[in-house]
Amino acid sequence: TDRDAVAGARHHAVFPCDLPGFHEFQRRLDGLANGTVTIVLTGERIGPGLEDAAWLARARQAQVRTALQIRLVADGDCFVRQFGPSATARIRDKLEAWGAEMVLGTSVASIGADAVTLADGRRLRSAVTALVGALTGPDLQTAELTDDRGFFPVNPQLQSIYEPTVFAAGDA
Predict the structure, then answer these.
(1) Fewer Cβ neighbours under 10 Å: the N or C end of the chain?
(2) Which among 118, 134, 133 has a CA at the least distance from the CA of 52?
(3) pLDDT digits (tens, 9 = 90+) for 77-104
(4) Contact of 75 with 105, CB cutoff 8 Å
């Protein structure tokens, strides 16, 4: 995860896309009696954050965590770009039916200790903020195998486009 993808995230957000980050997210949720949990989606892999928001909203709806408010904030146009307008509307309807709030259409300016500030000037209070989807490329010894963003591009057979003797799969 790119912990500097949004100003302040490194110091104030949790990053539940790896096991230590998920445990930290769980620890903070377990210690939270009330308040708003904000999940900020940014970058290329926002699906896990959507799953987190849906899970939390359903738990809240099932009267398990009624004092918590759940908010999903999509940074810029990442959500609509990935899912399209029709699916976005359906997802928003479902999350709102479960009592969650969905914020679209503006960039995230910063993440603070108790709030998420949007580029349009809104300051959204947040007791716990998770950042999901901001990826960095792999840390490979041979830069000749990565593109200009640090990713390891492969063809449909999972073969490196730069070196035909090298294959990679998953988050390699």
Answers:
(1) C
(2) 133
(3) 989 988 999 999 999 999 999 999 999 9
(4) no
